[in-house]
Amino acid sequence: YALWLVPSGPEAEALLSYPRTYHPRVSHLRTYRSRSYPRFDPHITLATFLSPHRPNIFHLVPMGAKTTPVHFESMEVGNEFLSSLSIIPKKSSELMQLRDRIMDHLKANNMRAMSSSFPHMSLFYLDESFKGERLLLSKQLRETGRVHEQKGGETNFTLNCTVDGAGPEFDAMKGFEGTEIWLVDCTEGVEDWTVLDRRDL
């Protein structure tokens, strides 16, 4: 099982435009690995844990958990399917405190919880059909204006979701407001992940 921090409805729809509509341009390649580029809801995984029975989300999330702002910082290319291409948010005090409170709450309820590679928000999952496909994808996101990264002084990182059909207010997303926590069963393949419960913050 996993607990996800999820954006508000309009922000989630804007972020969904990436995996919903965009695939890299590769002139000599016509096919992708079968499980690559699945659709999934944008999220930050707060914790994963094992449970012999289906848990109740109200037993997993501590009382008083609040809406949590997320600020994007950079984009990262990974070496594994589940870390293929991710947005790395800033480790703000609000985000880290929410994760820590949930981890403490799970452990207090005898749940074996993990929180690896925190925080990150996956944009794409893919098995490379050729060496460097993930790197090429990150390069094309920048070249097509979907990602803007200005360095020097304070880093300014934004996503332009209007390229893929989102409203004009999403032309320079610096982050999102985490307004819900979802309980998700992630035992199957990505497109078969099942949202079991939701809790408003």
Describe, in plain words, how this protein is organized in 3D.
The protein has helices at about 10-20, 55-60, 95-110, 135-145; strands at about 1-5, 45-50, 70-75, 85-90, 110-115, 120-125, 145-150, 155-160, 175-185, 195-200. The protein has about 200 residues and is an alpha+beta fold. The strands form two sheets. Strands 1, 2, 3, 4, 5, 6, 9 and 10 form an eight-stranded antiparallel sheet that branches. The chain has a two-stranded antiparallel sheet with strand order 7-8. Strand 9 and strand 10 (about 195-200) form a beta hairpin. The longest helix is centred in the middle third of the chain and has 16 residues, at about 95-110.
The major β-sheet equals: 8 strands, antiparallel
**Overall body shape:** globular
Which regions have little confidence, pLDDT < 50, spanning 5+ residues? none
Number of strands: 10
Helical content class: 10-25%
Order of helices and strands: EHEHEEHEEHEEEE
How big is the Rg?
Answer: 17 Å
Task: Specify the structural class.
Answer: alpha+beta
Cα distance spanning the termini: 20 Å
Query: What count of helical segments does DSSP give?
Result: 4
Strand content: 25-35%
Mean pLDDT, all residues: 89
Précis, in short:
This protein is α+β, with helices and mostly antiparallel strands. It is built from four helices and ten strands; from the N terminus they run βαβαββαββαββββ.
